[in-house]
Amino acid sequence: MSSIRPLIPLLIAAGILLGGNGLQGTLIALRGAREGFEPATIGLMGTAYFGGFLLGCLAITRIMKSVGYVRTFAALAAIASSGTLLLVLMVDPYAWAIIRFITGFCFAGLFTVIEAWMNSGVRNSDRARVLAIYRIIDIGSVTSAQFLIPVFGAEGFAIFAIMSIMITLSLVPVSLGDRSNPAAPAEVKLDLPRVWRISPLGCIGCIATGLTNSAFRSLSPVYAEELGMSVADIVTFISVGIIGGALIQYPLGYLSDRWDRRKVLLVTTFGALLTGLMLVFFAGTEPWANFALVFVFGAFAMPMYSLSAAHSNDRADPGEFVLVNAALMLFYSFGAIGGPFLAATLMQWQGPQMLFVFSSAVYTVLIVVIIYRMGARAAVPSAMRGNFTALLRTSTVFARLAGRNNRDGDGDRMDPTGK
Question: If residue 173 lies in a helix (H) or strand (E), which one and from where to where?
Fold first, then answer.
């Protein structure tokens, strides 16, 4: 525990940022709908956010090398906090899209700083505990922050001020809690063709998950709003979907360590497809039916990224874990950029249920790909599989923090120089 104690300020900062980021994503969609923005316009804002996030992941290491951890974090937090206040001062869809792009860039950098800093100090023996704590903070912060919306209301200035305060307060533990300033991590090597050759299915699975999960996170408030749910019901709808994925992810991962991961991925994809169709045809406007079904939907849909990544790492050579996971996060981001706008355009054309029609169509294609790949290549023997890791799509540096306890050496602790 003594080796984890220095990381507590960083974990506190991560919790504040994760909560503020999750809250902002929900509020943008909900407030935009109440301002009369078209669903396609709200989807464009989600696309802008993930576009900025992708650019931030690619550029942030150079910034960290130039000015260090604390200054990078302070600058990005200041921009993100200011952007949050601009959202309420400039209620315009195109201004919001630009602000969301900038915010996405900032949050990519903020999470990279936190995760690189944690990676520089965590021992291999403590890595699993740090990851578990980080995962708990992620789920707890994102879900609990949602309920600030019914407390303060989606209208007016107060909720935007709360978000700005949260982002600003994250500066305190980072600035005062740790006096070390390790060297910036080496830039993650990106070789997308190589990773595609390692596992086409893993890459396609991450793209599909990016398409569907980003659409759900960006547009589920619009879906619930158009069904006539109250604000409290809307945030409950979003939260139970996230909680469902968090609760089931590790049992599915346990099974995938023992069975062909592709079979587990096939079952989860089929489950997400079936539940998505049930939300379209059977949930109607009844809140409790939507809550129950979206819980099951999240339980199947949210773990698909981690399962795809685990399958890809089983195919990789020793020492390629960081390369593979950095590339998979980019493949996820490619899907995440397109998902919100495509789904929102369909929703504007045919109604809110098209959110889950879109997801179900993507899952159908993925099922075909999984079945094809199962016939094209034999399963990885169980003795050669690594341990399942519940990954977060926050930054490319997370690949180092999530080093597996298996046959490769990427999980070794970084030395103080970051080498």
Answer: helix 171-176
Contacts with 101 (C-beta within 8 Å, 6 or more apart), sequence order = 48, 49, 51, 52
108-122: pLDDT as tens digits: 889 888 877 777 766
CA 302/CA 298 separation, integer angstroms: 5
The contacts of residue 323 (CB under 8 Å, 6+ apart) are 188, 189, 190, 191, 194, 195, 316
Please say whether the beta carbons of 19 and 141 come within 8 A.
yes
End-to-end CA distance of the chain: 25
pLDDT at 274: 97
| Gap between the Cα atoms of 114 and 138, Å rounded | 13
The DSSP symbol for 312 reads H
**Which range is least confidently modeled, 105-109, 200-204, 224-228, 405-409?**
405-409
Residues composing the chain: 419
Measured between alpha carbons, how far is 211 from 221 in angstroms, rounded to an integer?
17
- Domain contains 222: yes
Q: How far apart are CA 381 and CA 166, in angstroms?
A: 47
What is the count of structural domains for the chain?
1
Q: Report yes or no: 306 and 331 within 8 Å, Cβ to Cβ.
A: no
Give residues with Cβ within 8 angstroms of 24, minimum separation 6.
84, 103, 163
Smallest CA-to-CA distance from 79 within 58, 64, 98 is with 98
Question: Is 414 within a domain?
Answer: no
- We report the CATH number of the domain holding residue 57 as 1.20.1250.20
What is the domain range of residue 312? 5-401
Q: What is the pLDDT of residues 293-316, one digit of tens each?
A: 999 999 999 889 888 888 888 887
* Region for residue 284 given its phi and psi (left: phi exceeds 0; alpha: psi -120 to 50; beta: otherwise): left
Residue 322 lies inside a defined structural domain of this protein: yes
Determine the residue type at 174.
V
Residue 360 CB neighbours (<10 A): 19
Q: pTM, whole model, 2 decimals?
A: 0.87
Within a domain: 407 = no
Q: Of 40, 82, 52, 63, which Cα lies nearest the Cα of 358? A: 40
Cβ atoms of 203 and 305 within 8 Å: the answer is no
What is the DSSP track for 182-214? PPPPPPPP--HHHHHHH-HHHHHHHHHHHHHHH
SS3 label, residue 299: helix
